[in-house]
Write a structure and sequence with these properties.
Layout lengths: L6 H5 L5 E5 L5 H10 L3 E6 L3 H10 L8 H7 L2 E4 L3 H13 L8 E4 L10 H5 L3 E7 L8 H5 L4 E5 L5 H10 L3 E4 L5 H28 L5 H19 L7 H4 L2 H14 L4 H17 L5 H10 L15 H9 L23 H9 L72
Parallel strand pairs: 1-2, 1-3, 3-4, 4-5, 6-7
Antiparallel strand pairs: 5-6
Length: about 425
Protein backbone atom coordinates (compact mmCIF):
# COMPACT_ATOMS: atom_id res chain seq x y z
CA UNK A 1 0.00 0.00 0.00
CA UNK A 2 1.17 3.47 -0.77
CA UNK A 3 0.96 5.37 2.54
CA UNK A 4 0.01 8.44 0.48
CA UNK A 5 -2.53 6.99 -1.94
CA UNK A 6 -3.39 8.80 -5.13
CA UNK A 7 -6.54 10.87 -5.44
CA UNK A 8 -7.89 8.19 -7.72
CA UNK A 9 -7.48 5.56 -4.99
CA UNK A 10 -9.22 7.79 -2.48
CA UNK A 11 -12.09 8.57 -4.83
CA UNK A 12 -12.76 5.12 -6.21
CA UNK A 13 -15.89 3.31 -4.91
CA UNK A 14 -15.40 1.45 -1.65
CA UNK A 15 -15.29 -2.30 -2.01
CA UNK A 16 -16.02 -3.40 1.59
CA UNK A 17 -17.65 -1.80 4.56
CA UNK A 18 -15.39 -2.15 7.61
CA UNK A 19 -16.28 -2.40 11.29
CA UNK A 20 -14.07 -2.47 14.39
CA UNK A 21 -14.95 -4.25 17.63
CA UNK A 22 -12.47 -2.89 20.16
CA UNK A 23 -11.15 0.63 19.56
CA UNK A 24 -7.79 0.04 21.16
CA UNK A 25 -4.48 0.88 19.58
CA UNK A 26 -4.62 -1.68 16.77
CA UNK A 27 -8.18 -1.70 15.38
CA UNK A 28 -8.59 1.97 14.39
CA UNK A 29 -5.15 2.01 12.77
CA UNK A 30 -5.95 -1.03 10.62
CA UNK A 31 -9.34 0.38 9.67
CA UNK A 32 -7.73 3.69 8.74
CA UNK A 33 -5.21 1.92 6.52
CA UNK A 34 -8.02 -0.04 4.83
CA UNK A 35 -9.80 3.25 4.24
CA UNK A 36 -6.75 4.55 2.41
CA UNK A 37 -6.93 1.45 0.22
CA UNK A 38 -10.52 2.25 -0.81
CA UNK A 39 -12.62 0.45 1.80
CA UNK A 40 -15.15 2.28 3.98
CA UNK A 41 -15.20 2.15 7.81
CA UNK A 42 -18.82 2.30 8.93
CA UNK A 43 -18.90 1.43 12.65
CA UNK A 44 -16.66 1.06 15.66
CA UNK A 45 -17.24 -0.09 19.23
CA UNK A 46 -15.37 1.17 22.26
CA UNK A 47 -16.14 1.95 25.87
CA UNK A 48 -13.31 3.84 27.54
CA UNK A 49 -12.63 7.53 27.10
CA UNK A 50 -9.32 6.64 25.47
CA UNK A 51 -11.10 4.44 22.91
CA UNK A 52 -13.58 7.18 22.07
CA UNK A 53 -10.79 9.70 21.57
CA UNK A 54 -8.76 7.26 19.51
CA UNK A 55 -11.69 6.41 17.23
CA UNK A 56 -12.46 10.09 16.76
CA UNK A 57 -8.87 10.81 15.74
CA UNK A 58 -8.24 7.91 13.41
CA UNK A 59 -11.80 7.27 12.16
CA UNK A 60 -13.53 10.68 12.19
CA UNK A 61 -17.28 10.65 11.51
CA UNK A 62 -17.47 6.87 11.98
CA UNK A 63 -20.27 6.18 14.49
CA UNK A 64 -19.55 4.52 17.83
CA UNK A 65 -22.04 1.66 18.32
CA UNK A 66 -22.47 -1.62 20.22
CA UNK A 67 -20.54 -4.68 18.98
CA UNK A 68 -23.64 -6.38 17.55
CA UNK A 69 -24.42 -3.25 15.56
CA UNK A 70 -20.88 -3.21 14.17
CA UNK A 71 -21.45 -6.67 12.74
CA UNK A 72 -24.85 -5.65 11.38
CA UNK A 73 -23.30 -2.81 9.37
CA UNK A 74 -19.98 -4.22 8.15
CA UNK A 75 -18.88 -6.74 5.54
CA UNK A 76 -15.41 -6.97 7.12
CA UNK A 77 -15.18 -6.93 10.92
CA UNK A 78 -11.93 -6.48 12.83
CA UNK A 79 -12.04 -8.13 16.25
CA UNK A 80 -9.23 -6.24 17.96
CA UNK A 81 -9.66 -7.24 21.60
CA UNK A 82 -7.21 -8.79 24.10
CA UNK A 83 -6.27 -12.42 23.57
CA UNK A 84 -8.00 -13.65 26.71
CA UNK A 85 -11.25 -11.90 25.70
CA UNK A 86 -11.39 -13.13 22.13
CA UNK A 87 -12.88 -16.62 22.54
CA UNK A 88 -15.68 -15.36 24.80
CA UNK A 89 -16.47 -12.50 22.43
CA UNK A 90 -16.69 -14.81 19.42
CA UNK A 91 -18.96 -17.25 21.27
CA UNK A 92 -21.23 -14.41 22.35
CA UNK A 93 -21.50 -12.96 18.87
CA UNK A 94 -22.34 -16.37 17.40
CA UNK A 95 -24.82 -17.34 20.12
CA UNK A 96 -26.79 -14.09 19.77
CA UNK A 97 -27.03 -14.36 15.97
CA UNK A 98 -24.90 -11.30 15.29
CA UNK A 99 -22.74 -13.12 12.75
CA UNK A 100 -23.93 -13.04 9.15
CA UNK A 101 -23.09 -15.71 6.55
CA UNK A 102 -20.36 -14.56 4.18
CA UNK A 103 -19.07 -11.92 6.58
CA UNK A 104 -15.29 -11.63 6.85
CA UNK A 105 -14.31 -11.92 10.51
CA UNK A 106 -10.70 -10.95 11.23
CA UNK A 107 -8.91 -11.11 14.56
CA UNK A 108 -5.46 -9.67 15.26
CA UNK A 109 -4.27 -11.92 18.09
CA UNK A 110 -0.80 -13.32 17.66
CA UNK A 111 -1.56 -16.29 19.91
CA UNK A 112 -4.52 -17.67 17.97
CA UNK A 113 -5.08 -18.96 14.47
CA UNK A 114 -8.58 -19.35 13.05
CA UNK A 115 -9.81 -22.14 15.37
CA UNK A 116 -10.79 -19.53 17.97
CA UNK A 117 -13.30 -18.23 15.38
CA UNK A 118 -14.97 -21.65 14.95
CA UNK A 119 -18.32 -20.62 16.58
CA UNK A 120 -18.59 -17.77 14.08
CA UNK A 121 -17.38 -19.97 11.21
CA UNK A 122 -20.19 -22.43 11.96
CA UNK A 123 -22.57 -19.46 11.69
CA UNK A 124 -21.26 -18.76 8.19
CA UNK A 125 -18.47 -16.26 8.81
CA UNK A 126 -15.23 -16.34 6.82
CA UNK A 127 -12.40 -16.56 9.39
CA UNK A 128 -9.03 -14.82 9.09
CA UNK A 129 -6.18 -14.33 11.58
CA UNK A 130 -4.03 -11.32 10.67
CA UNK A 131 -1.48 -10.35 13.30
CA UNK A 132 0.67 -7.25 12.64
CA UNK A 133 4.10 -7.84 14.16
CA UNK A 134 4.35 -4.25 15.28
CA UNK A 135 3.78 -2.19 18.40
CA UNK A 136 1.07 0.43 18.29
CA UNK A 137 0.81 3.86 19.90
CA UNK A 138 -2.88 4.57 19.18
CA UNK A 139 -2.01 7.56 17.00
CA UNK A 140 -1.85 8.31 13.28
CA UNK A 141 1.82 7.33 13.19
CA UNK A 142 0.69 3.69 13.38
CA UNK A 143 -0.83 3.90 9.90
CA UNK A 144 2.54 4.93 8.50
CA UNK A 145 4.33 2.18 10.41
CA UNK A 146 2.20 -0.44 8.70
CA UNK A 147 4.15 0.18 5.50
CA UNK A 148 6.34 -2.90 5.23
CA UNK A 149 5.10 -4.37 8.52
CA UNK A 150 5.13 -8.19 8.60
CA UNK A 151 1.77 -9.83 9.37
CA UNK A 152 1.40 -13.36 10.72
CA UNK A 153 -1.37 -14.77 8.49
CA UNK A 154 -3.49 -17.87 9.19
CA UNK A 155 -6.62 -18.73 7.21
CA UNK A 156 -8.36 -21.65 5.51
CA UNK A 157 -6.62 -22.44 2.23
CA UNK A 158 -9.57 -21.16 0.21
CA UNK A 159 -9.27 -17.76 1.91
CA UNK A 160 -5.51 -17.50 1.77
CA UNK A 161 -5.44 -15.15 -1.22
CA UNK A 162 -8.08 -12.90 0.35
CA UNK A 163 -6.11 -12.74 3.61
CA UNK A 164 -2.86 -11.90 1.90
CA UNK A 165 -4.57 -9.28 -0.30
CA UNK A 166 -5.96 -7.50 2.78
CA UNK A 167 -2.52 -7.42 4.37
CA UNK A 168 -0.97 -5.98 1.23
CA UNK A 169 -3.71 -3.33 1.02
CA UNK A 170 -2.85 -2.28 4.57
CA UNK A 171 0.75 -1.88 3.52
CA UNK A 172 1.99 -5.02 5.21
CA UNK A 173 3.90 -8.09 4.14
CA UNK A 174 2.09 -11.42 4.69
CA UNK A 175 3.95 -14.29 6.36
CA UNK A 176 2.03 -17.58 6.46
CA UNK A 177 1.87 -19.15 9.95
CA UNK A 178 0.40 -22.64 10.45
CA UNK A 179 -2.45 -22.91 12.96
CA UNK A 180 -0.42 -25.19 15.22
CA UNK A 181 2.56 -22.82 15.18
CA UNK A 182 0.73 -19.69 16.34
CA UNK A 183 1.59 -19.97 20.07
CA UNK A 184 5.28 -20.55 19.29
CA UNK A 185 5.27 -17.70 16.78
CA UNK A 186 3.79 -15.37 19.37
CA UNK A 187 6.20 -16.53 22.08
CA UNK A 188 9.09 -15.68 19.78
CA UNK A 189 7.79 -12.16 19.27
CA UNK A 190 7.28 -11.72 23.02
CA UNK A 191 10.87 -12.76 23.70
CA UNK A 192 12.23 -10.49 21.01
CA UNK A 193 10.14 -7.39 21.72
CA UNK A 194 8.45 -7.44 25.13
CA UNK A 195 11.46 -8.78 27.00
CA UNK A 196 13.79 -6.48 25.13
CA UNK A 197 11.94 -3.58 26.75
CA UNK A 198 12.47 -5.18 30.17
CA UNK A 199 16.19 -5.59 29.54
CA UNK A 200 16.67 -2.07 28.23
CA UNK A 201 14.76 -0.38 31.03
CA UNK A 202 16.67 -2.41 33.62
CA UNK A 203 19.96 -1.44 32.03
CA UNK A 204 18.94 2.24 32.16
CA UNK A 205 18.03 1.94 35.84
CA UNK A 206 21.43 0.41 36.64
CA UNK A 207 23.26 3.10 34.70
CA UNK A 208 21.36 5.74 36.63
CA UNK A 209 22.48 4.11 39.89
CA UNK A 210 26.02 4.21 38.54
CA UNK A 211 25.75 7.98 38.08
CA UNK A 212 25.09 8.21 34.34
CA UNK A 213 22.98 11.30 33.71
CA UNK A 214 21.57 10.26 30.32
CA UNK A 215 21.42 6.45 30.22
CA UNK A 216 19.22 6.49 27.13
CA UNK A 217 21.84 8.38 25.13
CA UNK A 218 24.58 6.10 26.38
CA UNK A 219 22.71 2.94 25.46
CA UNK A 220 21.27 4.10 22.13
CA UNK A 221 24.30 3.64 19.85
CA UNK A 222 25.40 0.43 21.60
CA UNK A 223 21.98 -1.23 21.43
CA UNK A 224 21.43 -0.09 17.86
CA UNK A 225 24.70 -1.68 16.77
CA UNK A 226 24.05 -4.84 18.79
CA UNK A 227 20.59 -5.27 17.26
CA UNK A 228 21.90 -4.71 13.77
CA UNK A 229 24.75 -7.18 14.29
CA UNK A 230 22.41 -9.81 15.76
CA UNK A 231 19.95 -9.54 12.86
CA UNK A 232 22.80 -9.76 10.35
CA UNK A 233 25.03 -12.38 11.94
CA UNK A 234 23.08 -14.24 14.63
CA UNK A 235 25.22 -15.86 17.33
CA UNK A 236 28.39 -14.70 15.61
CA UNK A 237 27.56 -11.23 16.94
CA UNK A 238 27.91 -12.32 20.60
CA UNK A 239 30.40 -10.20 22.51
CA UNK A 240 31.18 -9.35 26.13
CA UNK A 241 32.59 -11.14 29.17
CA UNK A 242 30.42 -14.26 28.91
CA UNK A 243 31.31 -14.87 25.27
CA UNK A 244 34.98 -14.25 26.06
CA UNK A 245 34.93 -16.47 29.14
CA UNK A 246 35.92 -13.70 31.56
CA UNK A 247 34.69 -15.46 34.70
CA UNK A 248 36.22 -12.90 37.05
CA UNK A 249 34.35 -10.06 35.38
CA UNK A 250 31.09 -12.00 35.47
CA UNK A 251 31.58 -12.77 39.17
CA UNK A 252 32.23 -9.09 39.82
CA UNK A 253 29.01 -8.19 37.99
CA UNK A 254 27.04 -10.60 40.16
CA UNK A 255 28.61 -9.23 43.34
CA UNK A 256 27.73 -5.65 42.38
CA UNK A 257 24.19 -6.58 41.40
CA UNK A 258 23.69 -8.34 44.74
CA UNK A 259 24.79 -5.18 46.50
CA UNK A 260 22.94 -2.55 44.43
CA UNK A 261 20.09 -4.31 42.56
CA UNK A 262 19.41 -7.80 43.98
CA UNK A 263 16.19 -8.02 41.97
CA UNK A 264 18.30 -8.05 38.80
CA UNK A 265 20.53 -10.99 39.76
CA UNK A 266 18.22 -13.80 38.64
CA UNK A 267 17.73 -12.23 35.22
CA UNK A 268 21.46 -11.64 34.78
CA UNK A 269 22.26 -15.24 35.65
CA UNK A 270 19.59 -16.67 33.36
CA UNK A 271 20.72 -14.59 30.39
CA UNK A 272 24.39 -15.29 31.08
CA UNK A 273 23.79 -19.06 31.12
CA UNK A 274 21.86 -18.90 27.86
CA UNK A 275 24.59 -16.76 26.33
CA UNK A 276 27.29 -19.18 27.49
CA UNK A 277 25.40 -22.09 25.95
CA UNK A 278 25.10 -20.32 22.60
CA UNK A 279 28.67 -19.06 22.60
CA UNK A 280 30.02 -22.52 23.45
CA UNK A 281 27.90 -24.29 20.82
CA UNK A 282 29.03 -21.86 18.13
CA UNK A 283 32.71 -22.03 18.97
CA UNK A 284 32.96 -18.53 20.39
CA UNK A 285 33.61 -19.57 23.99
CA UNK A 286 36.62 -21.79 24.69
CA UNK A 287 35.62 -24.99 26.51
CA UNK A 288 38.44 -24.59 29.04
CA UNK A 289 37.09 -21.13 29.96
CA UNK A 290 33.47 -22.26 30.01
CA UNK A 291 33.93 -24.45 33.10
CA UNK A 292 35.22 -21.57 35.20
CA UNK A 293 32.54 -19.26 33.83
CA UNK A 294 29.75 -21.70 34.66
CA UNK A 295 31.10 -22.00 38.21
CA UNK A 296 30.72 -18.23 38.53
CA UNK A 297 27.10 -18.57 37.45
CA UNK A 298 26.19 -21.42 39.83
CA UNK A 299 26.06 -19.70 43.22
CA UNK A 300 23.10 -18.99 45.50
CA UNK A 301 20.18 -16.82 44.48
CA UNK A 302 19.78 -13.39 46.11
CA UNK A 303 17.42 -14.77 48.78
CA UNK A 304 19.86 -17.51 49.67
CA UNK A 305 17.98 -20.28 47.87
CA UNK A 306 19.99 -22.39 45.47
CA UNK A 307 19.57 -21.56 41.82
CA UNK A 308 19.13 -24.21 39.14
CA UNK A 309 22.31 -25.77 37.87
CA UNK A 310 24.02 -24.02 35.04
CA UNK A 311 23.04 -25.06 31.55
CA UNK A 312 23.49 -28.83 31.28
CA UNK A 313 24.64 -28.65 27.70
CA UNK A 314 27.29 -26.09 28.40
CA UNK A 315 28.47 -27.77 31.62
CA UNK A 316 28.70 -31.19 29.99
CA UNK A 317 30.63 -29.85 27.06
CA UNK A 318 32.98 -27.88 29.27
CA UNK A 319 33.72 -30.90 31.46
CA UNK A 320 34.41 -33.15 28.51
CA UNK A 321 36.85 -30.70 26.98
CA UNK A 322 38.20 -29.15 30.15
CA UNK A 323 41.89 -28.45 30.26
CA UNK A 324 43.75 -31.08 32.33
CA UNK A 325 45.82 -28.53 34.21
CA UNK A 326 43.01 -26.99 36.24
CA UNK A 327 45.34 -26.13 39.07
CA UNK A 328 47.16 -23.72 36.80
CA UNK A 329 44.10 -21.53 36.35
CA UNK A 330 43.83 -18.29 38.23
CA UNK A 331 40.86 -17.74 40.52
CA UNK A 332 37.85 -16.04 38.93
CA UNK A 333 36.22 -14.87 42.15
CA UNK A 334 35.00 -11.30 42.21
CA UNK A 335 36.26 -8.64 44.59
CA UNK A 336 34.22 -10.13 47.42
CA UNK A 337 35.00 -13.72 46.56
CA UNK A 338 31.44 -14.11 45.22
CA UNK A 339 31.19 -16.71 42.48
CA UNK A 340 27.43 -16.93 42.29
CA UNK A 341 25.38 -16.12 39.84
CA UNK A 342 1.14 1.43 34.02
CA UNK A 343 -2.53 1.40 34.17
CA UNK A 344 -4.36 -1.94 34.23
CA UNK A 345 -5.12 -1.54 30.53
CA UNK A 346 -1.51 -0.81 29.70
CA UNK A 347 -0.23 -3.67 31.83
CA UNK A 348 -2.62 -6.03 30.03
CA UNK A 349 -1.25 -4.79 26.75
CA UNK A 350 2.35 -5.26 27.69
CA UNK A 351 1.63 -8.80 28.85
CA UNK A 352 -0.03 -9.94 25.67
CA UNK A 353 1.34 -7.81 22.89
CA UNK A 354 -0.65 -7.10 19.73
CA UNK A 355 -4.10 -6.72 21.18
CA UNK A 356 -6.75 -4.11 21.53
CA UNK A 357 -9.62 -2.78 23.59
CA UNK A 358 -12.89 -4.07 25.02
CA UNK A 359 -11.89 -6.77 27.47
CA UNK A 360 -15.06 -8.39 28.87
CA UNK A 361 -15.73 -8.23 32.57
CA UNK A 362 -14.11 -11.11 34.52
CA UNK A 363 -17.39 -12.99 34.82
CA UNK A 364 -17.70 -13.00 31.01
CA UNK A 365 -14.25 -14.39 30.31
CA UNK A 366 -13.85 -18.00 29.20
CA UNK A 367 -12.38 -20.31 31.78
CA UNK A 368 -9.99 -21.86 29.31
CA UNK A 369 -9.28 -19.22 26.69
CA UNK A 370 -6.10 -20.22 24.80
CA UNK A 371 -3.47 -17.89 22.84
CA UNK A 372 13.88 -12.95 12.39
CA UNK A 373 15.46 -15.09 10.84
CA UNK A 374 19.00 -14.13 10.99
CA UNK A 375 21.24 -14.55 8.04
CA UNK A 376 24.77 -15.57 8.79
CA UNK A 377 27.21 -12.88 7.79
CA UNK A 378 29.82 -13.82 5.28
CA UNK A 379 32.42 -12.33 7.60
CA UNK A 380 31.84 -14.27 10.79
CA UNK A 381 33.82 -12.83 13.70
CA UNK A 382 36.74 -14.89 14.90
CA UNK A 383 36.41 -16.94 18.07
CA UNK A 384 35.81 -14.49 20.88
CA UNK A 385 37.88 -16.56 23.31
CA UNK A 386 40.94 -15.78 21.16
CA UNK A 387 40.43 -12.05 21.29
CA UNK A 388 42.17 -9.68 23.64
CA UNK A 389 40.02 -7.91 26.20
CA UNK A 390 37.67 -5.41 24.60
CA UNK A 391 38.02 -6.67 21.03
CA UNK A 392 34.46 -6.70 19.68
CA UNK A 393 33.11 -7.11 16.16
CA UNK A 394 32.29 -3.79 14.56
CA UNK A 395 28.69 -2.95 13.65
CA UNK A 396 27.73 -3.88 10.13
CA UNK A 397 25.52 -0.84 9.78
CA UNK A 398 22.91 1.37 11.49
CA UNK A 399 20.82 -0.19 11.97
CA UNK A 400 -17.35 -6.81 23.63
CA UNK A 401 -20.59 -8.07 24.13
CA UNK A 402 -22.85 -8.60 21.15
CA UNK A 403 -26.29 -8.25 22.79
CA UNK A 404 -28.15 -6.32 25.41
CA UNK A 405 -28.30 -9.54 27.42
CA UNK A 406 -24.53 -9.31 27.93
CA UNK A 407 -22.78 -6.25 29.35
CA UNK A 408 -20.59 -4.21 27.02
CA UNK A 409 -16.94 -5.04 27.66
CA UNK A 410 -14.67 -2.51 29.31
CA UNK A 411 -11.67 -1.35 27.34
CA UNK A 412 -8.20 -2.71 27.64
CA UNK A 413 -5.46 -0.97 25.78
CA UNK A 414 -2.48 -2.88 24.54
CA UNK A 415 0.76 -2.48 22.61
CA UNK A 416 3.01 -4.65 20.50
CA UNK A 417 6.58 -5.18 19.46
CA UNK A 418 8.35 -2.05 18.40
CA UNK A 419 7.08 1.09 20.07
CA UNK A 420 8.28 3.03 23.02
CA UNK A 421 5.85 1.00 25.17
CA UNK A 422 7.05 -2.31 23.96
CA UNK A 423 4.80 -6.86 21.86
CA UNK A 424 3.88 -8.78 20.00
Amino acid sequence: MNPNPSLEAQDRPARLTVGVVGAGRVGPALAASLQLAGHRPVAVSGVSDASVRRAAELLPDVPLVAPAEVLARADLVLLTVPDDALADLVRGLAETGAVRPGQLLVHTSGRYGTAVLDPATRAGALPLALHPAMTFTGTSVDVQRLAGCPFGVTAPEELRMAAEALVIEMGGEPEWIAESARPLYHAALAIGANYLVTLVTQAMELLTKAGVRAPDRMLGPLLGAALDNALRSGDAALTGPVARGDAGTVAAHVAELRRHAPQAVAGYLAMARMTADRALSHGLLKPELAAELLDALAGPAPDGAATPDASPGARASSKEERSPSEGERTSSAGPDGDRGEGSDDDRAEERHGNRDDDRPAPSDRPADANNGPTAADDHRPTTLGDRPEGDHPRPNGPTSDPSSARPAPPDSETTDPGSHRGDS
